[in-house]
Amino acid sequence: MDIDPGFLPTFWHWWILAVVLLALELMAPGVVFLWVGIAAAIVGGVILFATHLAWEGQVLLFAALSLAVTAGGRIWWKCRSVEERDPTLNRRGASLIGTTCVLVTDLVNGRGRARVGDSTWTVTGPDTPKGTAVRITAVDGSILSVEPAA
């Protein structure tokens, strides 16, 4: 299939391509089509003012802008990434380290249960009687390591 030598894409063609690429971005995982869609929109803006640019030049401009916008977007995204304000946000056990709780069973042979908030957790530590306040020192999965609170 040959391309009509008289065919010259207009800015509308590029903007429609940009909309299609941005719609694909909504359906695809990752940030892939976003940058290429932005490049297509920019080419459409350039063609709006430079109507004499041949289709070959438009495609080359699109390819170069796709690479540049993708590289720039990746750098911008990396610089923009936010540090976690609470590194223990989705790790409840880790957020408990240093807190004090009360044993609901005797710690016998190094194992027992303690009330933490509105639930009870399995704890390990030195043998200690029920009702003693203990401090959480470490977490291993769902098991808390404790020591008597001073």
Radius of gyration: 31 Å
Approximate strand percentage: 15-25%
**Spatial ordering of strands, largest sheet:** 1-2-3-5-4
What distance lies between the first and last C-alpha atoms, to the nearest angstrom? 84 Å
Number of helices: 4
Mean pLDDT: 87
Q: Which class best fits the helix and strand makeup?
A: alpha+beta
Shape: rod-shaped
N-to-C order of helices and strands: HHHHEEEEE
Oligomer: single chain
Please summarize the sheet with the most strands: 5 strands, mixed, barrel
Topology, number of strands: 5
Helix fraction, binned, reads 40-55%
Could you characterize what this model shows?
This protein folds into 2 domains: about 10-80, no CATH class; about 90-150, Nucleic acid-binding proteins (OB fold (Dihydrolipoamide Acetyltransferase, E2P), Beta Barrel). Helices cover about 45% and strands about 20% of the residues. The chain has 4 helices and 5 strands, in the order ααααβββββ. Strand 4 and strand 5 (about 145-150) form a beta hairpin. Helix 1 packs antiparallel against helix 2 (about 35-50) and helix 2 (about 35-50) packs across helix 3. The longest helix has 26 residues, at about 55-80. The termini are far apart. The mean pLDDT is about 85.
